Amino acid sequence: MNMSVSGKDLQPTGAWTTEGRQPRIAIIGAGFSGIGALIKLRQQGYTDLTCFEKAGEIGGTWRDNHYPGLSCDVPSHFYSYSFALNPDWKHRFSYGPEILAYMNQVADKYGAKQDIRFNCGVTDLTYLGPQWQLTTEQGDVERFDLVIAATGVLVNPAYPDIPGLDSFAGEQWHSARWRDDVPLKGKRVGIIGTGSTACQIVGAIAGDVGHLDVFQRTPHWITSMPQKQYSATWRFLLRRVPGLQLAIRNFMRWLMEHTFARATLGDEKQQKRVQDACLAFLKEQIPDPELRARVTPDYKATCKRMIMCSDYYPALQQDNVELVTERIDAVVPEGVKTGDGKVHELDILLLATGFHVSDFILPTRVTGENGLELSAFWREAPRAHRALTFPGFPNFFMLEGPTGVFGNTSLIDISEHQIDCVIAILDKMKRDQVAVVAPKQEAYEAYNQAMSRDIGKSTWATGGCDSWYLDATGTPNIYPWLPQQYREDMLNPDFSEYRFEPLKVAV
Ligand code: N01
């Protein structure tokens, strides 16, 4: 590897706060969180920013995912930056390309791209108090005063552990690695998985393919997506009526959280309301009781992430679509072999089998104080203090980190609040002239104990299902209280939970 040292490297061993200079801040990842951090930090006067992006363009999950039917099941006016409300959303629930275009427009408008180094993945981060040493894929080494990881959650595709998967003679790919170069028209296609992604794909491709086999291991709860195209008059009104966009954003947030978050977090009446709505939707959409029974879950709604999709059930009833509920035994060169001995012959096999959700910033090697590696710190399960910081990893923040608010809500809204919290911490460091900040071990433990106690009451734990919210120990690794509480925590951080230290002599 070509190890080179940049001009700025290895000089700033002092504390930015006492030297009266700008902190050098590294932001890793240029998706919604990373772009939001670049913009908000600059707005607050933090200008020495470098964003490392492994790909050649911004976008994160909205760049990597471009499968047919890709859309967002959080309303557009809520799935937006609060500082860049968009009156021009064309639909109540936006499609992937429009969301990616919005992110680019905002990044361009605020000049965020000037701070991004593209095609520059980060392989190593090592804490050399009070700075972090960062190594790129190219072997360049630099030091930063603070690191903000904005590397996303649903990043690394999970390939199913099915015998013979590689023996398939046709084409196969994961939903997050969509092959635009292989036409589906008229082909015999199989799709494994029936989560949010699969439902969108099935709805979008059923009319195009020759035959479609949908391999369902577990049925998911689905509610309708009340899609709506916004008229030109409505968009005009949004531009002209002061406060209207913000009011809609807040209303959408209230609605999402009032329905799904409450239903998940122990409000049994609300949980029943959501489940009854799903059952009514199912009954209306699928008149055939036999098919209906095969797609009716036997666990509680909101145990897995709720799916909002209006195209899936109609697609399942098309003549060229078959729901396969027999367990998959193996993939063979001709197709998929199920438990009843049948081989479902296919030209193309689609894997909508989800993501490795415990990786976060890994496999980047992150080494904190006393040689502690993040992968070791997370050996049992990835944990964090208030889903943002880690004891033993000073001056290091993670947006959308473990134990965050991952339910049916806007992750843009959540990451914006996390960025505000980071800024509040930086302001305090500057004010008090301290070089080091990290959560106290006891605060981290108390917080995680409280989480473990309360998460047991949620339907993620009690609903009787398996889901990507569960960690390797079978415990939901997700925020157990209402999103409103998390936002308040971020807006009013309790500084007594952190150790703020002046500079000890660093070498
Ligand atoms: O992945 P999933 P996803 N054999 O993990 C099945 C977000 N998202 O990509 O349920 C057979 O939910 C698995 O079966 P089971 C959203 O947060 C958002 O669909 O485990 N089947 C399941 O059916 C979502 O939660 C939007 O029994 C296997 C499926 O694969 C997250 O992404 C849109 C299998 C995986 O479902 C992930 O959704 C789309 C095997 N070996 C996605 N392994 C928005 O609109 C797995 N499965 C914002």
Low-confidence stretches: 1-10
Bound compounds, please?
Answer: 3-acetylpyridine adenine dinucleotide
Query: What top-tier CATH class of the largest domain fits best?
Result: Alpha Beta
Q: Share of helix among residues?
A: 25-40%
Q: What do the pLDDT scores average to?
A: 94
- Annotated CATH homologous superfamily of the largest domain: FAD/NAD(P)-binding domain
End-to-end separation in angstroms reads 25 Å
Topology, element by element:
Blueprint: E1 4-5, H1 16-19, E2 25-28, H2 32-43, E3 49-52, H3 61-64, H4 96-109, E4 116-117, E5 122-128, E6 131-136, E7 140-144, E8 146-149, E9 156-157, E10 171-174, E11 188-192, H5 196-205, E12 211-215, E13 222-223, H6 232-240, H7 244-264, H8 268-285, H9 289-294, E14 307-308, H10 312-316, E15 321-324, E16 328-332, E17 335-338, E18 343-345, E19 348-351, E20 355-356, E21 365-367, H11 374-377, E22 396-398, H12 411-432, E23 436-439, H13 441-455, H14 459-462, H15 483-491, E24 498-501
The protein binds 3-acetylpyridine adenine dinucleotide.
